[in-house]
Design a protein that fits this description.
Number of strands: 5
Number of domains: 1
Shape: globular
Number of helices: 5
Structural class: alpha/beta
Order of helices and strands: EHEEHEHEHH
Radius of gyration: 15 Å
CATH architecture: 3-Layer(aba) Sandwich
CATH class: Alpha Beta
Strand order of the largest sheet: 2-1-3-4-5
Strand content: 5-15%
Amino acid sequence: MTREKSRRRDGSLKVAIIVDPYGSVAMDQTGDEEAAQHRADMTLILAPSALTFDTKYVMPPDLDADLVVFDFGGMSLGNDLLGDNSRRVLQWAQDHPSSLVLIVSNFTYRHGLLPELRERGLFISGKDDGEDSQTTPIHNIREFAAYDEKAVTALRAWFGMKRLSAKALEKVLWRRK
């Protein structure tokens, strides 16, 4: 996964967290609690970079970010907010190829992003066939629901960072169990 580094000159990163206000039913968290969890996770994973966070409940088209963390599954029932925000995220990723979008929920990927990829004719067979793949046809969108060593290492590599030490990696992975 090589590309231009999108870190700022001072080495900092702007991180946008896009979550629905209902939060996570599975994790029994409000939207604010879910966003706080993502901030804590990204702070550990992307250490020692200085991170600036911005939390949104809708994907704005004029977003300025190096990394977008997208988790919008909770508001999908009875409306098209998941589909609408997935379309916006997909378009934003295509318009900002040096930034990275992490889909941190399998539900958000399967029921939000995947239908949008299919509708645009961008779906690559494999993800739906049960294969374990973190790639999408858009080079800068990654499913990151697993939070495993491979995913964490790939995320750090995207921003030109070295691998986490075993101790730091254990701390990250332990938080997600």
